[in-house]
Amino acid sequence: MKTRIHRPFGKARLALLLFAILLAAAAVWWQTPAAISYETAAATRGDVEAIVGAVGTLSPLHSVEVGAQVSGQIVNLAVEPGDEVEKGQLLVEIDASLQQATVDAGRAELAGLKAQLVSLEAKALLAEQQHRRQQKLAKDGATCEEDVQTATANWAVARAEIDQLKAQIQQTSSRLKGDEAQLGYTRIYAPMAGTVLSVEAKRGQTLNATYSTPVILSIADLSRMTVDAKVAEADIRAIRPAMPVWFTTLGDNRRRWRGEVRQILPAPVANASNNDIVHYRVLFDVDNDDGALMSGMTVQVSFVTAFAEDVLLVPLAAITQQGRADGDPGLYTARVLDAESQPQARTLRIGRQDAVAAEVLEGLAPGEAVIVREMDPALLED
């Protein structure tokens, strides 16, 4: 009779063996590195534009404030803001009663002096005739010395009175010209063609021009505008006269107005706040033929410090500047995927740069893929 031997722990050992195998497989899987993925960008051709940004304000290139040179009440104000005016057009009339009366009095006084001159010249002619007669009589011994002396003196006095009156006439004539000029100032004409920007006075208002010139209105030629840009001191050394520049308005960032730097003012802008930031004024002009630009507009200005057209470009995020002993600033390192999609370090010579891309001068061909960054496998699994 055979005896059957029971093995109560056989199944348990089998389960433990299977668990150990699974645990070992999991450990191997866990220690195996996940495949690395890369975000890449192809080297492509395009334009690169390096800029210095600033904020500016628009104003007319040519403008004038029209003021009053005489005191008086405004009796006629012929224009309003927005009106187009021509050079020489009547703008304002000031009550001319006082100035007209002064001119009339001066003209009458001048006429009286000229009449006196005619009378004195007649007297001088008589004195001259008497003097010559006395001289002739004296030669013949037919007159006394006293009569000769009297005739000579009368002739000299007559000539002196004429000279004195002529000086008085000249003085009165000069004063009359000034009075007539003051009368002319009561009618104010446009000194230039343009658009009336503002009117500061009203019809019936009394102006006092005794100590200063009161401004009545302002006129500007809006066909050409000036941009007054404020550039931070950290960027001002990059700005040069004749440098290309463009700007957009706050209301339309799609249209660009272009110009060239005309002037860099040497004095810093007076700082109204206490933020210790120093700015300098840079001026440039643009055409405004369609009237889209208005005085006082705020604009976003871009000074073009470098520009290249149709060049090979790579993203700035894909390159790292090399720290070389020779100090060559144009050498950078990039990682490029080879034919087996493996990253290879590559030295590139970089030219001009903007905020997002750089010009490749050497070391890369169009279409080659440069690594921008490594992708996190955990994020990819999610």
The gross shape turns out to be: rod-shaped
Helix count equals: 4
Quote the beta fraction.
35-45%
Spatial ordering of strands, largest sheet: 2-9-12-11-10-13
The largest β sheet comes out as: 6 strands, antiparallel, barrel
SS elements, strand count: 18
Radius of gyration: 48 Å
Average pLDDT confidence is 88
Q: Which class of secondary structure composition applies to the elements? A: alpha+beta
Provide a descriptive summary of the structure in words:
- The structure is a single chain.
- This protein has helices at 10-31, 97-140, 145-184, 377-381, and strands spanning 37-42, 44-67, 72-77, 84-85, 90-94, 187-189, 194-199, 206-207, 215-232, 244-249, 252-268, 279-287, 298-315, 319-321, 331-337, 343-353, 357-362, 369-375.
- The protein has 382 residues and is an alpha+beta fold.
- The strands form three sheets. The protein has a six-stranded antiparallel barrel with strand order 2-9-12-11-10-13. It has a four-stranded antiparallel sheet with strand order 6-5-3-8, with no helix packed on it.
- It is rod-shaped and about 185 Å long.
